[in-house]
């Protein structure tokens, strides 16, 4: 679910720049160091103090030792046959895709000359600009970095001609490459989308900010610390490759100090049901009376449910309980090879249907309110259509949180979805029975490399700094595996073939039609969501047969949902029915400051306002099996 002013996150994104606001920034070294016989850096700016060459030599030896540990951690699982030695399917696809872009430009001489002339003229202008700057002039830059781009904040990037040239050459080249992709109009949309994604990955990796000799701040740090920073960084890299079983599991947050059930996912409650797929948690009431109709929350199975219960201040679950709602939450198992054949039908029947059965037995209420988050929402929509096809009226209302049911305008994850790539994923899953959590985490991170990859590479492995302790990033790295049958069904029927909204999906003996779903729906989108785009959620709203309240929240896939009412952050938009185009709806929508939570609870009470005395967790038939958050959520991938 992991978001840009928001992580593969109809998959839930892990985390994006908006979620990271307020995180403590790594301390920076001064951009102006006194000159102590060290001369100057290229371009004449002051250099750091002369390093201790003896210490630097010793640290160089230590770096070699730590680099050997990194290599050993990488090679060991490959020698044991646990990892493939051949190039990854993603790398092969990147070469093929970018090759098609190159073929487009080189197939006609005029186009090839146009492309070459464009970059050549820009670089010549940049060289002239740099010469003027070295002569003491102050010419306007050829290419300026985005003011929000934290990579080039250090003053030396602009004041020092050497670093200024590197920065501008990088910006000119990457923007030229982006232009080549955008203007390759002979290519189909999906190929151009993939090419743009791969160019973004390469641009992120090749930034001069990622290398010690070409980053003024890294250069100063390394000289000041005599290379100690690189020793610390390589030590952490070896640990992280070991933790990733041969792949680098980027350290985004300190793990010490976080423990699920101790200082995360701490809302009091009990596990009232368990099967091979789920634990069902019922939370302890905090009010004397509650709404009679209970609420069953279906989180995504590709992330752990405690994104909705990070801590008491951010917990949507606790807030619902405090509003007088009887809350049940599904905690999905972290699957392994034993769950390989658990398919969509299994997840529906042993997951959502089982949870509804237990909630009905415990509360005595024939119907329940339901919430589905991201892919959990997609599964919930499938369940609604399945119940409607069978004539079963078990849901009083449904809330979808950043959920897609139509994938025509799906988000950035579509870059990973075509027949060739799905075949490669299916082959990998078939060998293990599941898709490793690391694959999902890497894909989420790659969607926002400048937020979720390279800042941590620089700060952790080059500056040698432990990242700050941050609960959201801890959750982001607490990945889960995907069972083979379920993930295959989801990728093909939703992303690749879009069968649900087209009325072509069949499940458990029923042909599904969203138009038969008459349940009142609260459909929340997030304005800056790159996983379930607001336009996609808007279009999906049109396929339901009952009343839909479409609400647009500020921020992205995570921060747009986990937006505590007490914080007063962001805003949300409400408007008329979901007809016409999304842009027209937004133009006439009403903007309200603060969290959508308050709008939602008012809507929920309208659906079923009757109250009943508060209910303790469990019943005679479903005695508590243990305290929340249960056991399944604690299983690591």
* Biggest beta-sheet profile: 11 strands, mixed
Count all strands and give the number: 17
Structural class: alpha/beta
- Described by the principal axes of the CA atoms, the overall outline is globular
Radius of gyration: 27 Å
Describe the overall structure.
With 637 residues, this protein is α/β, with parallel strands linked by helices. It has 21 helices and 17 strands. The protein has helices at residues 17-20, 53-79, 89-106, 109-134, 156-159, 161-182, 189-205, 216-224, 228-243, 316-322, 344-363, 375-389, 419-432, 437-447, 449-452, 454-462, 471-477, 484-496, 534-541, 582-587, 596-607, and strands at 269-274, 278-283, 289-291, 295-298, 327-332, 368-373, 395-401, 434-435, 482-483, 506-507, 510-511, 521-526, 548-553, 571-574, 590-593, 611-613, 626-627. The chain has an eleven-stranded mixed beta sheet, with helices on both faces. Strand 4, helix 10 and strand 5 form a beta-alpha-beta unit. The longest helix has 27 residues, at 53-79.
């Amino acid at each position: 679910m992991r978001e840009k002013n928001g992580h593969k996150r109809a998959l839930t994104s892990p985390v994006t720049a908006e979620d990271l606001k307020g995180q403590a920034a790594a301390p920076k070294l001064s951009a102006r160091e006194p000159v102590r016989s060290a001369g100057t850096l290229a371009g004449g700016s002051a250099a750091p103090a002369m390093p201790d060459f003896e210490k630097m030599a010793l640290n160089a030896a230590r770096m070699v030792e730590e680099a050997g540990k990194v290599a050993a951690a990488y090679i060991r699982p490959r020698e044991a046959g646990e990892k493939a030695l051949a190039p990854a399917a993603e790398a092969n696809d990147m070469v093929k895709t970018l090759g098609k872009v190159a073929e487009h430009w080189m197939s006609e001489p005029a186009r090839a000359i146009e492309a070459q002339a464009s970059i050549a003229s820009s670089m010549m202008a940049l060289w002239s600009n740099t010469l003027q700057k070295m002569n003491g002039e102050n010419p306007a830059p050829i290419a300026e970095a985005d003011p929000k781009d934290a990579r080039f904040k250090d003053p030396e990037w602009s004041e020092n001609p050497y670093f200024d040239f590197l920065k501008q050459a990088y910006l000119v080249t990457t923007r030229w490459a982006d232009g080549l992709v955008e203007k390759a109009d002979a290519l189909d949309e999906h190929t151009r989308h993939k090419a743009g994604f791969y160019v973004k990955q390469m641009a992120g990796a090749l930034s001069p900010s990622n290398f010690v000799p070409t980053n003024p701040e890294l250069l100063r740090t390394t000289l000041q610390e005599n290379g100690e920073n690189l020793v610390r960084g390589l030590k952490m890299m070896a640990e992280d490759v070991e933790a990733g079983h041969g792949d680098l599991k980027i350290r985004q947050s300190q793990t010490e100090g976080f423990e699920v059930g101790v200082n995360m996912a701490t809302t009091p409650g009990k596990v009232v049901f368990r099967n091979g797929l789920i634990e069902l948690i019922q939370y302890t009431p905090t009010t004397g009376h509650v709404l009679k109709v209970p609420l069953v929350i279906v989180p995504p199975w590709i992330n752990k449910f405690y994104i909705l219960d990070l801590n008491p201040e951010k917990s949507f679950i606790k807030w619902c309980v405090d509003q007088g709602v009887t809350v049940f939450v599904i905690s999905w198992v972290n699957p392994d090879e034993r769950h390989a054949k658990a398919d969509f039908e299994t997840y529906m029947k042993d997951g959502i249907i089982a949870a509804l059965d237990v909630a009905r037995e415990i509360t005595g209420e024939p119907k329940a309110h339901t919430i589905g988050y991201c892919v959990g929402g997609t599964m919930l929509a499938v369940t609604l259509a399945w119940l409607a096809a069978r004539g079963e009226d078990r849901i009083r209302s449904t809330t979808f949180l950043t959920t897609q049911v139509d994938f025509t305008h799906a988000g950035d994850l579509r870059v990973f979805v075509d027949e060739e790539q799905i075949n490669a994923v299916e082959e990998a899953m078939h060998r293990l029975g599941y898709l490793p959590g690391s694959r999902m985490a890497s894909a989420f991170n790659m969607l926002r490399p400048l937020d979720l990859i390279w800042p941590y590479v620089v700060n952790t492995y080059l500056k040698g700094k432990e990242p700050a302790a941050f609960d959201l990033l801890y959750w982001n790295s607490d990945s889960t595996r995907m069972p083979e049958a379920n993930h295959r069904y989801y990728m093909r029927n939703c992303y690749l073939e879009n069968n649900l909204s087209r009325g072509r999906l069949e499940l458990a003996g029923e042909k599904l039609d969203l138009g038969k779903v008459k349940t009142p729906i609260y459909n929340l989108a997030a304005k800056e969501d790159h996983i379930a785009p607001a336009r996609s959620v808007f279009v999906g709203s049109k396929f339901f047969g009952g009343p839909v309240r479409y609400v647009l929240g500020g921020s992205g896939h995570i921060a747009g949902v986990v937006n505590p009412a007490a914080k007063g952050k962001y805003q949300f938009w409400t408007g008329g029915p979901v007809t016409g185009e999304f842009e027209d709806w937004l133009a006439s929508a009403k903007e309200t400051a603060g969290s959508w939570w308050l709008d939602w609870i008012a809507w929920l009470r309208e659906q079923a306002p009757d109250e009943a005395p508060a209910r303790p967790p469990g019943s005679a038939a479903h005695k508590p099996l243990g305290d929340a958050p249960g056991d399944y959520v604690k299983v690591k991938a």
